[in-house]
Amino acid sequence: MNAHGFVHKYGDNVDTDVIIPARYLNTASHAELAAHCMEDIDADFVKNVKKGDIIVAAKNFGCGSSREHAPIAIQASGVSCVIAETFARIFYRNAINIGLPILECAEAARDIQSGDEVEIDFDTGMIQNRTSGKSYKAQPFPPFIQNIIKKGGLLNSIMK
Amino acid sequence: MGMTMTQKILAAHAGLESVSAGQLIEAKLDLVLGNDITSPVAINEFEKCGASSVFHKDKIALVLDHFTPNKDIKAAEQCRQVRNFANRYQITNFFDVGQMGIEHALLPEKGLVVPGDCVIGADSHTCTYGALGAFSTGVGSTDMAAGMITGKAWFKVPSAIQIVLKNKPAKWVSGKDVILHLIGMIGVDGALYRSLEFAGDGVKHLSMDDRLCIANMAIEAGAKNGIFPVDEVTVAYGKDRFQHEPVVYAADEDAVYDETIEIDLAKIRPTVAFPHLPENTKTIDEVGKIKIDQSVIGSCTNGRMEDLRAAASILKGRKVAKDVRCIILPGTQAIYLQALREGLAEIFVEAGAVFSTPTCGPCLGGHMGILGKGERAISTTNRNFVGRMGHTESEVYLASPAVAAASAVTGYITDPEQLTEGERK
Fold it and tell me: Does the pLDDT at position A145 exceed 70?
């Protein structure tokens, strides 16, 4: 499995209130949530994001509420992967459970810049920055989590 | 190697003799919780994967508390979906308008969580129940759906930071000041993926309402859970309340902690978190003159009886400043009724405050007190992120009910001691 796209870069503590503001939580529609993704931190994100694009952020990405609407909004807006130095724990679980690939890699999170073209190989954890020519190795998932992802999310893994 | 209190509860629920930090386990759940925002997503997933039954109709709690009483048609539709699901699967602990309260005030009050339980909730402040000596943590809707189907959840066993509390807090210093002080020390990711385990002889000076408030905001330090030892205060709280048999766990004497932090409760001052992170704390003495437009007293953090009493003790015989909107929200119907009986509701209304039905409403910018551009609120809620309570250019300052009430009176962020002393002189 691979991802390939252009980077949207953010800083520390990107919280779920800016990823998808609560005023839009009166719907569970993926398309409606995607239409407001990142609205309170980057009003142009929805206009600029293209299928396959990658979000890169620093520490504690997805902190705050447990709303699964946050990774859903990101996934439904076409983003193929989120790379961060660290993730808040509920966001981390939620992303895995819905099948949104996320990678923890401090060096990549620091180096990669907005607009860079990045390619990711999820089997090896290799992150290639096509723009700068640099490559990075992300922390691989433990086998238990790989199994959830391989089966297409948590519910598929328990219902089989 | 000894286990932390959290590790012992997780081991027992995974059917294991012992567990250690980093281990992946599957644990049995005593309760699975959802609200009117997170349950619809869980129900969609539940139905999409073809599930046709829940693991236990008494061990699921569905609470319609966020956008209720329904704030708009979409919110009404989400509640209708949850109501239909609760009826179809005969969910015992379904709380609709009239019975509902803010979930993390309601569940402990009803005795639905007891010491030793393992609880997940599709709401980040589910960590509140650590106050009772239970393991409880926030998850997303897919985890909630899986929990409702199987009665189990996967966890990575956390390591812990031990917080040793010493001495007794001063007047006007509450659980809220303790937890804001701690978050100010360690930061919003200071306890990321880990437990906060409270200990020390200062614990006995904290009421259950203080402990519920402290455990509630463990998530604001990134923690997986916050947990208190079970003592006389817990036992007294649980008398005639706990709905099933508690199991008391204590950390092993040789439990290993990542670090131990000592906090002298006697030295804590009323504390305020400035925009836009709960870690941006200052003591009330360092605040300076900050004008406010709104004061919100309530939420799963501070909507309990002691919180309302603290606010009333300040608002009694005083008036909310002319250009301030003061909104007071009790946590549950029982708290609402008690506030009426004690005459607190009268104090609030006579002071010029609004006394509302229980709802999460303004805390997350849902309804019942949204901020406009450039407006500023002092609030007893738990988050002050950009746009949390309304416009992206509005500001939220987090504080205790006493500080929020004193600020409502003066129109500026105010030390309750200064207000009451000043008027006595």
Answer: yes
CA-to-CA separations, B239 to B109, B111, B213, B232, in angstroms, rounded: 11, 9, 20, 11
- For residues B384 and B54, what is the distance between their CA atoms, to the nearest angstrom? 36
Q: Convert the pLDDT of each residue in A68-123 to its tens digit.
A: 999 999 999 999 999 999 999 999 999 999 989 999 999 999 999 999 999 999 88
Neighbours of B23 (CB within 10 A): 15
Determine whether the interchain pair A21/B365 forms a contact, defined as Cβ–Cβ distance below 8 Å: yes
Residue B412 near residue B289 (C-beta atoms within 8 A): yes
Mean pLDDT confidence for A7-33: 97
Which residue from B285, B300, B269, B272 is spatially nearest to B107, judged by alpha carbons? B300
3-state SS class at B367: coil
Thinking of the domain B271-415, which architecture would CATH place it in?
2-Layer Sandwich (3.30)
Token pair for B278: 């709960």
Contact B398, B379 (CB under 8 A): yes
* Sequence spans of domains, chain B: 5-264, 271-415
Model pLDDT, residue B151:
98
Task: Give A35-81 pLDDT, tens digit per residue.
Answer: 999 999 999 999 999 999 999 999 999 999 999 999 999 999 999 99
Look up residue B188 and give its two tokens.
């919003």
Name the residue among B140, B386, B387 with its Cβ closest to that of A97.
Answer: B140
In chain A, % helix, strand, coil (3-state, to 5) comes to 35, 20, 45
Do B271-415 and B5-264 have the same topology in CATH?
yes
ipTM over 0.85: yes
Determine the distance in angstroms separating the CA of A78 from the nearest CA of chain B, rounded to an integer. 19
Instruction: Please check the confidence at residue A149 and state whether its pLDDT lies above 80.
Output: no
Best of B224, B368, B388 to substitute, by most chain A Cβ atoms within 10 angstroms, is B388
Residue among B67, B146, B277 whose CB faces A154 most closely: B146
Domain B5-264, architecture per CATH: 2-Layer Sandwich (3.30)
